[in-house]
Amino acid sequence: MAEAPKPPAASRAGMKKELPERFRDYKDVWVFIEVERGRVHPVSWELMGEGRKLADKLGCQLAAVVIGPKAETTKRAIKQTYHYGADVCYIVEHAALTDYRNEPYTQVLTNLVDTHKPEILLLGATPLGRDLAGSVATTLQTGLTADATELAIDDDMCLGATRPTFGGTLLCTIYSLNHRPQMATVRPRVMAMPTPDPSLSGRMVWDSFKMKEADIITKVLEFVSDNTSKDANLAYADIVVAGGMGLRNEGNLRLVRNLAQVLGGEWGCSRPVVQKGWATADRQIGQTGNTIRPRLYIAAGISGAIQHRVGVEGADLIVAINTDPNARIFDFAHLGVVADALTLLPALTEAFARRLG
Ligand code: FAD
Predict the structure, then answer these.
(1) CA of 245 to the centre of ligand 1 (A)
(2) What is d(CA 101, CA 319) in angstroms, rounded to the nearest whole number?
(3) Is 311 annotated as a binding residue?
(4) Which of 135, 142, 229, 259 is the most buried (most CB within 10 A)?
(5) How far apart are CA 95 and CA 279, in angstroms?
């Protein structure tokens, strides 16, 4: 297997400048813990793992921010932040914070930042995190790197947030040299999940909620759960089987679905498959789709374009099936099979069904 291209080490040679004196007031790495309807989004813990590395490099504390109602679920989330390495947890609890609403959450988070001045603030690039990060960065008038794929501290102790650019053909490292905090969002599964340590504990810092419900424009009248949703849970699946344009037509996607089902995994696809209307967008894997980190990824009839590759590189084992021995996917697959997916997929399904069933 060929070496995956490494993003450049965070470096801003040639653009060095003295950092303003006021930046000295800013310290610590913060992670916003996304708690929605009592459930912590796993990306928050992935960010705690990454935040710990940044804090250790900076020689500062790692802090978690938990915002929500006064409830058992909030209490549980606070406790978990320590297990995932938080030295301190900033907490704001109020009934008005039960459901996510941009206005109160932005106010709470910007108030906390104004008071305690973190050097770095990280959020998950989820629908909630993206919404909140944008409004917090705008309110604080600071820079935000969206969808970062690598975070590193440079020689001047500045955050370099690396992300794909120009349609994924290049990687760029973005620095926030004139404003603090340095903000970034990171998509689920881009960073590895750390192992929690239940013996760890830390400090709690409480702050109050300063808005009045009457002043909040958005009202949550009712929460309607989409029970019928068949949304794919690709990001956190252990086994993923995906099909690309090599499958030739929509009907042949069932070969991918069948194998995924027999293996107890999820199925996905490349972007053109979605663009053809053969699958819904939640099945797409890659730069503009899901990032996955399964134990096993089987890619059938997928060429291995860079935009697909960046979404699957975290997989433990990548198996590629392609008729073209020169397909780019063989550059990064751990196991390559030069074969017709239309005959190999059903054969694998049958063999696994016999063995596992
Ligand atoms: P193709 O490139 O057409 O490859 C089909 C492959 O199937 C070929 O390698 C062929 O040899 C093989 N094949 C043919 N017949 C068989 C057979 N019978 N059995 C086995 N193999 C066979 N793409 C993504 O996937 N995800 C993204 O998130 C994404 N985001 C993008 C974002 C931007 C801004 C841009 C510009 C592009 C993006 N793309 C993305 C598109 C990407 O560049 C590629 O075009 C795409 O991944 C190719 O899809 P494919 O491999 O299915 O199709």
Answers:
(1) 6
(2) 42
(3) no
(4) 259
(5) 40
Q: Are 239 and 263 in contact (CB under 8 A)?
A: yes
34 touches 66 (CB < 8 A): no
Question: Is 246 assigned a ligand-binding role in the annotation?
Answer: no
CA separation, residue 31 to residues 103, 120, 127, 195 (Å): 19, 8, 16, 17
Give the residues surrounding ligand 1 with Cβ less than 6 Å away: 167-168, 244-246, 270-272, 284-289, 301-303, 305, 307-308, 311, 321-324, 327, 340-342
pTM beyond 0.80: yes
Cα distance from N-terminal residue to C-terminal residue, the chain: 32
Supply the ipTM of this predicted assembly: 0.99
The alpha carbons of the chain give a radius of gyration, in whole angstroms, of 22
Ligand 1, from 270, 284, 285, 348: best to mutate by most atoms within 8 Å of Cβ? 270
Q: Which atom of ligand 1 is nearest to the CA of 324?
A: 11
* Mean pLDDT, residues 22-37 taken together: 94
- Please tell me the distance between residue 273's alpha carbon and the centre of ligand 1 in angstroms: 8
Q: Which residues pair with 320 in a beta bridge?
A: 299, 336
What CA–CA distances, in Å, run from 21 to 12, 60, 240, 291?
A: 20, 18, 50, 39
**pLDDT for 218-246, tens place per residue?**
999 998 877 655 667 899 999 999 999 99
Q: What amino acid is encoded at 99 in this protein? A: D
How far does the centroid of ligand 1 lie from the alpha carbon of residue 303, in Å?
5
> For residue 226, what are its two tokens?
């989409």
Q: Residue 340 CA: which ligand 1 atom is closest?
A: 19
Residue 65: phi and psi, rounded to 5, are: -120, 120
Residue 9, CA atoms < 13 Å, CB-side half-sphere: 4
Determine the Cα–Cα distance for residues 266 and 246; give it in Å rounded to an integer: 19
Asked if 242 contacts 302 with a C-beta cutoff of 8 angstroms, the reply is yes
Distance in angstroms (rounded) separating the CA atoms of residues 12 and 15: 6
CA atoms within 13 A on the CB side of 23: 17
pLDDT in tens, 72-113: 999 999 999 999 999 999 999 999 999 999 999 999 999 999
The residue type at 196:
P
Instruction: State percent of the chain over pLDDT 70.
Output: 94
Distance of CA 21 to the CA centre of its chain: 33
